[in-house]
Design a protein that fits this description.
The complex is a heterodimer. Chain A is built from 22 helices and ten strands. Chain A is of the alpha/beta class. Chain A has a six-stranded parallel β-sheet with strand order 1-10-7-4-2-3, with helices on both faces. Chain A has a four-stranded mixed β-sheet with strand order 8-5-6-9, with helices on both faces. In chain A, helix 4 crosses helix 13 and helix 17 packs parallel to helix 19. By secondary structure, chain B is an alpha/beta fold. Chain B has one domain: NagB/RpiA/CoA transferase-like (Rossmann fold, 3-Layer(aba) Sandwich). In chain B, the strands form three sheets. A six-stranded parallel β-sheet of chain B has the order 1-12-7-4-2-3, sandwiched between helices. In chain B, strands 8-5-6-9 form a four-stranded mixed β-sheet. Classes of the chains: A alpha/beta, B alpha/beta.
Chain lengths: 479, 217
């Protein structure tokens, strides 16, 4: 068995979106947990941008990201040079498996057996924890939400708030069963016991693994945004720090960071800034008294360079992972993060995941949307998410003859019958005689119309054909 | 071909052709010139809204305030810098209302357990602050290492009101960060916190439970 296949055998079947969504919709606890959390986050975001010229700020955010993407290969090289100059080792990985192997090799070279982790969505994408465990290396999450999710043997249901699907009672029970803390609804107590448990782990960990929010090419700086301090612990206490990040996270200079930071934390949680903004530009110097002696950066492609090829799809790479699109999504709020079965849930997941797993595997993702447009309106870097959803829907049925589909696994949803019906539909609408005849016959036979129209009528009343066509009625009115 | 070459080549040979580079106008980040008083007020309002504490004092009175703050918390000890004037003046003050003074002058490996389990309070300097977001700027040094502002349950920072900038954008320009960054630089805006359990705020999850700013005016 190849390493890749071994690595992939515990995957959730993304194609089973509908049964999972169905189950979530009928679970009042999930509905309540998400509804109340998302309502709170929407209100906080709105308040945090009060007094700002938000449209101009979002324009700046979009331009800053576009400018970085326009120079992406040069910036990556500049970043590599600067980091190397600063003493940080840079590694490149074409996909998640290669990135996992790089992390493993760094660990093995140090005889490391315990890894403590700060929050990193790219490491979720790589399924790093699972991989390291197979290699006999313990990987422990230190972000409180991630810690809870890991104890439960689950995956994050939100990219910023991983344990948002659980309430205090459930978390208390979980901590009690897994770590022996007392059952309590006192969040202070639960947090304090997690602090105690994780402090030991920080002190003994051989390697710290973190993500990166922005990588600055000009100064060779890795920026991390966090509230808990676990990110600082992870990147400071163990003797070796490995940062993993997608290749799109690089920006030219610190000035770009000031614009993106202003947007990121306000969009994500409605905070003007997070407690810690941690900027790392090198390992511990000879005379310094703390900090890791080794710092590595793993630059992960994993499908990003494919997205990069197309002018429209490219916008997906502007994402700064704030999660605002999820917080404002009527579908996400109702089905929760796990229903999607993907690393990134919600609107951004629907446009990003098809590239990472293929549009065949992710065929239901672009359709899991009402196209209400809220995600596009709140996106701090103005990613036209609804447009990209439509584009991916077209690609999933190979629906646009003028623009051949590009995304891997395109056409997976194409059905010959449906294609034929649409062809007939188009022909009928382009031929007035046929159209009049067709609609006339349909009106006459309206009594034969079935009462149900499959899934469409599960929650809707079936539309009834009118007794007379519009043409007939207009004729009667003498127009 | 190495992963590096594969990735860079794919990016360089983009099928969509070359991308146009947009203009970036950062003026939306600028604020009218606030006076020092306005900056102090805003800083205080922002940091207090996230559970930080500000004490106003002067060059002559900060040590008295510090002693009070430590006494009310029953601090057994205080971690201070060896060379920085804050540490120097505390150690030479010879006051009996201060707790035991500890110095971070050995590599972390030799006293990690002690730092993690025994130190009650630490005090550091700052490289200024940011009014708009209520943030402290710290550049840890050999004298004030990274963990000094992270591990103890209470972190006290000294901030000069005259060193308050209006925005982060202004601060990084004024201090010319583009010219080079230290191994670690930080913005700290309040004590460590989490809302990961049902959106309920709890402080001191991994870092300090309390952040106290002695504002020198």
């Amino acid at each position: 068995m190849s390493e890749t296949a071994e690595h992939a055998d515990h995957h959730i079947d993304v194609k089973q979106f509908h049964p999972r969504a169905q189950a979530a919709i009928h679970n009042p606890k999930i509905r309540k947990n998400f509804r109340s959390a998302m309502d709170g986050l929407m209100a906080k975001r709105k308040a945090a941008f009060e007094g700002w010229d938000l449209e101009t700020l979002r324009d700046l955010g979009a331009n800053v990201r576009l400018r970085a993407l326009a120079n992406l290969p040069d910036l990556l090289e500049q970043l590599e040079n600067k980091l190397t100059e600063n003493g940080i080792k840079v590694h490149w990985a074409v996909d998640g498996d290669e990135a996992c192997r790089i992390v493993r090799d760094i660990c093995k070279a140090r005889d490391a057996i315990t890894v403590i982790k700060g929050k990193s969505m790219v490491s979720e994408e790589m399924e790093l924890n699972h991989y390291l465990e197979e290699q006999g290396i313990e990987a422990l999450e230190s972000d409180l939400g991630e810690y809870i999710v890991q104890l439960a043997g689950e995956t994050p249901s939100h990219i910023i708030m991983p344990a948002i699907h659980k309430n205090t009672g459930e978390i208390s029970k979980l901590l009690h069963e897994k770590t022996g803390t007392d059952l309590s609804n006192d969040v202070e107590y639960l947090t304090a016991s997690a602090r105690q448990q994780l402090r030991e782990k920080f002190m003994n960990a051989d390697v710290g693994v973190s993500g990166v929010n922005f990588a600055v090419a000009e100064t060779g700086t890795l920026c991390l945004v966090e509230n808990e301090g676990n990110g600082r612990m992870t990147t400071t206490v163990p003797p070796c720090h490995i940062a993993v990040t997608g290749i799109e996270k690089v920006v030219p200079g610190m000035e770009d960071v000031s614009a993106l930071l202003a947007l990121l934390t306000r969009s994500a949680t409605g905070q003007h800034i997070t407690t810690y903004f941690n900027m790392i530009s090198g390992p511990r110097k000879a005379e310094e008294l703390d900090g890791p002696e080794e710092v590595h950066l793993v630059l992960v492609d994993n499908g990003r360079s494919s997205i990069y090829q197309d002018d429209e799809l490219l916008d997906t790479l502007r994402c700064i992972r704030c999660g605002a699109c999820m917080n404002h999504c009527p579908v996400y709020t109702r089905v929760g993060g796990h229903a999607y079965g993907t690393t990134y849930p919600g609107p951004i997941g629907k446009i990003l995941m098809p590239h990472l797993i293929g549009l065949d595997e992710g065929r239901h993702l672009p359709s899991a949307s009402s196209l209400c447009g809220a995600c596009g309106e709140v996106c701090p870097v103005k990613i036209p998410i609804p447009d990209l959803l439509v584009r991916l829907r077209q690609e999933s049925v190979d629906g646009d003859r003028l623009h051949p589909a590009k995304v891997r696994g395109h056409g997976a949803k194409r059905s010959a019958m449906e294609a034929m019906i649409w062809k007939g539909w188009a022909w009928m609408h382009a031929s007035p005689g046929v159209y009049r005849f067709g609609t006339g016959v349909a009106s006459k036979l309206r009594a034969l119309q079935p009462a149900s129209a499959g899934a469409w009528t599960n929650y809707r009343t079936a539309p009834k054909l009118a007794a007379k066509t519009l043409h007939q009625r207009m004729k009667e009115r003498g127009q | 071909m190495s992963a590096r070459e594969t990735i860079l080549q794919r990016l360089r040979n983009r099928t969509g052709g070359e991308l146009t580079v947009p203009e970036c106008d950062f003026s939306v980040l600028e604020r009218p010139d606030w006076s020092t008083t306005e900056r102090v007020e805003r800083f205080e309002k922002m940091i207090e809204s996230v559970h930080g504490e500000v004490h106003h004092c002067t060059e002559d009175s900060w040590m008295d305030r510090l002693a009070e703050v430590l006494a009310t918390r029953g601090a057994r000890n205080l971690l201070v810098a060896k060379a920085h004037e804050i540490g120097q003046s505390l150690r030479s003050a010879d006051r009996n209302d201060l707790p035991e003074l500890l110095i971070y002058d050995e590599p972390i490996e030799s006293w990690q357990a002690h730092l993690f389990n025994e130190v009650d309070v630490s005090i550091t300097s700052t490289r200024g602050g940011i009014a708009e977001t209520g943030s402290l700027i710290l550049w840890p040094t050999v004298d004030e290492p990274r963990l000094m502002s992270l591990v103890a349950p209470v972190h006290i920072a000294i901030l000069k009101a005259s060193e308050l900038y209006t925005t982060f954008h202004e601060a990084m320009k004024a201090q010319n960060w583009a010219a080079g960054m230290p191994t670690n630089a930080l913005l700290i805006s309040g004590p460590s916190k989490t809302a990961d359990i049902e959106q309920t705020l709890a402080y001191g999850v991994h870092g300090p439970k309390e952040l106290i700013v002695l504002m020198i005016e």
